[in-house]
Design brief:
This protein has 138 residues and is an all-alpha fold. 46% of the residues lie in helices and 3% in strands. It contains 4 helices and 2 strands. Strands 1-2 form a two-stranded antiparallel sheet.
């Protein structure tokens, strides 16, 4: 009446490996096989997860990009309807007065400052090396 449970393993989540799928003859039957178990020459030295690796963009940058796109769409709609688009009033980093074509992103300002600091350090290091050479010549 009752049959005993079959012994051994029948597979499952603990036994599953994508490397086994890439070697399987029926690999096309697995959902996600082309991304998680890529085979062939086309995938060699390719980043198949490129769409998921955009870690540099923060939430602020994403929202800023969406805001810029919405502004551009609103300007395009205004031009299409025959109106003049609203001028953008954003402070220029050099003059401190309002500018219509420059956008001010805090992250970009920090990056520019960091590049300027590194450049200045490199210049100072080069100058010190030049002075040591002068002392050595004398």
């Amino acid at each position: 009446m009752y049959e005993p449970i079959r012994g051994g393993t029948r597979g499952g989540q603990a036994e599953f490996k994508w490397t086994d799928v890439s070697a399987d003859k029926d690999r096309e039957n697995y959902l996600g096989h082309s991304i998680n178990a890529p085979t062939g020459r086309w995938q060699k030295n390719k980043d198949v997860h490129w769409y998921n690796r955009d870690l540099k963009d923060s939430e602020f940058e994403r929202l800023e990009e969406i805001r810029k796109i919405k502004e551009a769409e609103a300007d395009a709609l205004a031009v299409a309807l025959g109106f003049t688009p609203e001028p953008k009033q954003i402070k220029s980093e050099l003059s401190g007065e309002a500018s219509e074509d420059k956008t001010e992103d805090p992250k970009l300002v920090i990056e520019k400052e960091e590049r300027r600091r590194r450049k200045e350090a490199k210049r100072a290091k080069k100058e010190a090396k030049r002075e040591r050479k002068e002392v050595k010549r004398e």
